[in-house]
Amino acid sequence: MKKSKYLSMAIALAVMTASSSVFAAEVADFGDEDVVVTATRTEKKDVDVPASTEVITAQQIEEMGAKSAADALSKVNGLTFKSFGQLNAAMGTMINEITIRGIDNGTMIMMNGVPISMRTKYDISAIPASIIERIEIIKGAGTTLYGSQAMAGVVNIITKNPEGPFGGDATIGFGSQGQQLYYVNATADNFSVFFNKQKWNGSHDATVSDFDYNGPAKTDKNKFKGETHTWVRDIEKTSAGFNFKFNDRFNVMYDYNQSVGTYDRYITSLAATNKYSATLHADVGDFFNSRKYTVTQHNAQALYSDNLWKLKFFYNTGTFESIGPSAFFLGTSSNGSGSYNTKNGWYSNDNQNWYNTKERNTTIGTDIQRTWQLEKGSNVIVGANAQRESYESCVTAYDPSNERYARNVWAAFAQLDYNFDDKNNIIIGARETWTSGTALNYSNFSGSVAYTYKLGNENNIYAAVNQSFILPTFAQMYGASDMAVPNPGLKPQKGVNYEIGWKQKHGAHTWKAALFKTDIEDNISATWSDKKRSYSYKNEDFRNEGLELSCSIEPENSKFSFDYGLTWQNPVVKSTKKDYWDRKYGKIQLTGAIRYKVGKFTGVLDASFLGNRVNTPSSEHSFETKPYLLTGLNLMYSPTDKCDVSLKIDNLLNRKDILSHSSSIYYSAPISFLLSVTQKF
């Protein structure tokens, strides 16, 4: 409590100092330097930002052949990536995940500085890469400036602004296993509109899991136990949107994304063949169940920005729906009299049980920020944000439940960025967050402080301490499916991130190094119970410490350029089920990219290796898992200034790697290629 008061007094003093200082309205001009806005809410050269940062530019995204935001983020140093199929398919709420420094629920995903996560879930695989101007990644707690969910870091996807005369581009592509790509973008003066569709009609083995199936009647005491594999097929991503720029200060955007995929589950082995009823039996190779998952998102933003004010109004809504047969045949096996429905791709039987759940998450909010420029390039930021979060369990033909919950989240924040002289800089921040409108409300104070010392021109060292927290979601508190046990008494998880680092830009080389330590209390995690066949959410403790190193080399007169990174870490977790610290994720990560440019040809080979890995069940000891190696190759030829021909190859070595880190096993998609042509007009 005393620390909170002292830090609050420091921020108040900073604001009073600002109000009596000589203000300046000029905004720094950094020329062609890499600029990061997300880390401090103001423009700052990357080398001067006191945090571990990564910036992925539109040019880099194009050269690597990324087709979505998820593609662009899959091989970043310090990030682990998980997906559930080709095109980074989503299994309902189990969607593609970006994990920073081993914290699997602490990455805030934003678009243009506006959060787009839905109960900490997000599907960025449907955001087309062609509309992205750059992606800023801040590793380490960002709660002081951005609130709940930013415990591990922030990913800010910044989209392109419409400008200039009429123009645009169109892309068409075809590839292996039924891949198709269609994209068109048109810009006229201050208005742009786009449409993007990706398809992947093939199928592959995506997951493996055990099953323990009880009989349909209460008197049935025997069980089937065995193993199943799930095959993903018919993946489709659709996105569309527009951006209207009224003037240099104000623009309105709308973005629609939808992901659809079907997952068929088959029995691959049986541990026992007992029959618990005369009408039910199963064989290896039988159809077990199927799910068609649809994730639909609508994101609308109204953004105003000038030298002093930034105002953001946003409306995000996302719907998750799952539908399909809930279990294998009641009556016969799929080799018997059951029939296959070719219309929807599912087995059908009169006695078949069906599963259909649907939920909707909506957030409407605003973020207001005022900046005062001080002498010596210093500044003070004061702001507030408010949002209304709501959750609805929608009625379906097979699920009559209709539960609704809502709450208000309020916050006020302030930050002083002060230059003592040409070498010494300090940034102090504070945030107070509270909720209202529910039976159980929360409040939290978070503070941060960062110090930077200039060793020379574009050569800095820094030290930072950041507090963070995450509010429990409605799904965790009240249950979002028939397999989730609600826990309305969950505590917010709280953490502290300590970091010291060094950044230098010298000629063609950019070096970055960071030592970090993260401690989290009451980390919210899902625990699976074999006996109850359900998940329950509980609080546990988490900690991690590690070292990150990265280097970018871009010689002016060379055909080659390079990026490489190394992360060593030791994430561990301690829960009520385990009275000891158990390992999570992997200890060693290596990332790298080699770019080759000559004339009209560009080639990029990139990779991410995660070694010394474990999978960590919620109630059992972690077990070793083989390393994963994600690889990609993009070859691009530009016959004219307005035409590009690209060949993108994913999983170049055709590895069947495990991408998950829990007790469930999810495999990487097999090798695939996509040949596309882009024409600018």
Account of the 3D structure:
This protein has one domain: Maltoporin, Chain A (Beta Barrel). The protein is built from five helices and 38 strands. Strand 11 and strand 12 (191-214) form a beta hairpin.
Topology:
Blueprint: H1 2-19, E1 35-36, E2 44-45, E3 52-57, H2 58-64, H3 69-73, E4 79-82, E5 97-100, E6 107-111, E7 114-115, E8 132-139, H4 143-146, E9 153-159, E10 167-175, E11 179-188, E12 191-214, E13 223-245, E14 250-270, E15 287-305, E16 309-325, E17 339-341, E18 346-348, E19 354-373, E20 379-393, E21 404-419, E22 424-436, E23 443-456, E24 459-470, H5 474-478, E25 484-485, E26 493-506, E27 509-529, E28 534-553, E29 560-569, E30 572-575, E31 578-583, E32 586-598, E33 601-615, E34 623-625, E35 628-640, E36 643-650, E37 665-666, E38 672-680
Parallel strand pairs: 6-9, 25-28
Antiparallel strand pairs: 1-2, 3-8, 4-5, 6-7, 8-9, 10-11, 10-38, 11-12, 12-13, 12-37, 13-14, 14-15, 15-16, 16-19, 17-18, 19-20, 20-21, 21-22, 22-23, 23-24, 24-26, 26-27, 27-28, 28-29, 28-30, 29-32, 30-31, 32-33, 33-34, 33-35, 35-36, 36-38
